[in-house]
Amino acid sequence: MHIITEPLLEEGLRILQTVGEVKVLEHPSQEVLVKEIVDADAIVVKFAKVTRECIEASKRLKIIAKHGVGVDNIDVETATQRGIWVTNVPSVNADSVAEFTVGLILAVARKIPEGVEQIKAGEWRRESLLGMELKGKCLGIVGFGNIGQRVARKISGFEMRVIAYDPYVSEEKFLQYGVELVDLNTLLKEADIITLHLPLNRETRGLIGEKELRIVKSSAFLINAARSEIVEKYALLSALKEKRLAGAAIDVFDNEPPSPDDPLLKLPNVIGTPHIAAMTREVQEKIVKTVCDDVVRVLNGQVPLNPVNWVET
Ligand SMILES: NC(=O)C1=CN([C@@H]2O[C@H](COP(=O)(O)OP(=O)(O)OC[C@H]3O[C@@H](n4cnc5c(N)ncnc54)[C@H](O)[C@@H]3O)[C@@H](O)[C@H]2O)C=CC1
Ligand SMILES: O=C(O)CCC(=O)C(=O)O
């Protein structure tokens, strides 16, 4: 039996049904997931948390397949210890996320959502919507992997200076994209727009905190379409309230969906979107096939094509 924790395109169900019965749980609580995972051979997961408790409750689990890139909602360490494959779908959504990031940059720098709100409310207060031109400004990309590199490529027509920080990518890669490699402090100091494209893990949780937000220009904007917890929420709130940061565009929240009372969403200089950077028809159709194909491979005794862990034999 395989479990799916959120609704899946029909094509995915069809592929999974070739190797067994499929049970769709719609956004299960931890309690339900711990119970349902006991007899599952495979689990396909979008946002549900596959914790140590879940993994330890499972008796037959062979693969936890992430419908996306970031595996921060899966306890990969415990899965690895127990010989369970964890897979993801790298790079397939990178172009859509990069396109969306460019959209967020334009939206926040040019106050597009506020303009839309004004005109729908029958208002015409153009002077309150003075934006920032991108030409000649500096874009700072933190995390220069699949998405970060595509953001650099897609923004090139805007004639910005592009700098990036990523301690794990070779210098040649930055040269190839015409991007300056800098350290994090330099990036925070010099960027007019800072955009995050790195995974959430022990090293990156809270990477952008009080100290870092005190370095940024007060005219700068922060874009977060990576993971919320990379930025310390209360440090960000203070920076925005005290106008030490001009604005932020955020696609990811610590509790999704966020409460309508989330203090970040109450701020006029914050744009929020409901985790939709990868939500294009093209991406969703490709992801579902890749994620389910790896489930089939593992249940047929083969090695998956997109493992994020390894299993000692
Ligand atoms: N909002 C959304 O819908 C989506 C969000 N994401 C998030 O974006 C993240 C990045 O995705 P990809 O670019 O596809 O992943 P990727 O693995 O291709 O690139 C991530 C880059 O971050 C770098 N990195 C790791 N630790 C770092 C650190 N401490 N400082 C600076 N750089 C660091 C890595 O070296 C790598 O080059 C994902 O992990 C996921 O959390 C991904 C897809 C959709
Ligand atoms: O759109 C989705 O399903 C999740 C995208 C995401 O956050 C990821 O790929 O890590």
TrEMBL record:
Give the D-isomer specific 2-hydroxyacid dehydrogenase catalytic domain ranges.
3-309
Record-listed E.C. numbers: 1.1.1.399
Gene Ontology terms, MF aspect: NAD binding; oxidoreductase activity, acting on the CH-OH group of donors, NAD or NADP as acceptor
Q: What class of enzyme is it?
A: oxidoreductase
- Which PANTHER family is this protein grouped with? D-ISOMER SPECIFIC 2-HYDROXYACID DEHYDROGENASE FAMILY PROTEIN (AFU_ORTHOLOGUE AFUA_6G10090) (PTHR42789:SF1)
Question: What is the name of this protein?
Answer: 2-oxoglutarate reductase
Name the reaction it catalyses.
(R)-2-hydroxyglutarate + NAD(+) = 2-oxoglutarate + NADH + H(+)
Q: Which family does it belong to?
A: Belongs to the D-isomer specific 2-hydroxyacid dehydrogenase family.
Which InterPro entries did the record assign? D-2-hydroxyacid_DH (IPR050857), D-isomer_2_OHA_DH_cat_dom (IPR006139), D-isomer_DH_CS (IPR029753), D-isomer_DH_CS1 (IPR029752), D-isomer_DH_NAD-bd (IPR006140), NAD(P)-bd_dom_sf (IPR036291)
Q: Is Cytoplasm among this UniProt entry's keywords?
A: no
D-isomer specific 2-hydroxyacid dehydrogenase NAD-binding domain location is 102-277
Q: Which domain of life is it from?
A: Bacteria
Reported function: Catalyzes the reversible oxidation of 3-phospho-D-glycerate to 3-phosphonooxypyruvate, the first step of the phosphorylated L-serine biosynthesis pathway. Also catalyzes the reversible oxidation of 2-hydroxyglutarate to 2-oxoglutarate.
The record lists the organism as Thermanaeromonas toyohensis ToBE
Q: Which UniProt keywords apply?
A: Amino-acid biosynthesis, NAD, Oxidoreductase
Is Amino-acid biosynthesis tagged as a keyword? Answer: yes
Q: Which GO terms describe its biological process?
A: amino acid biosynthetic process
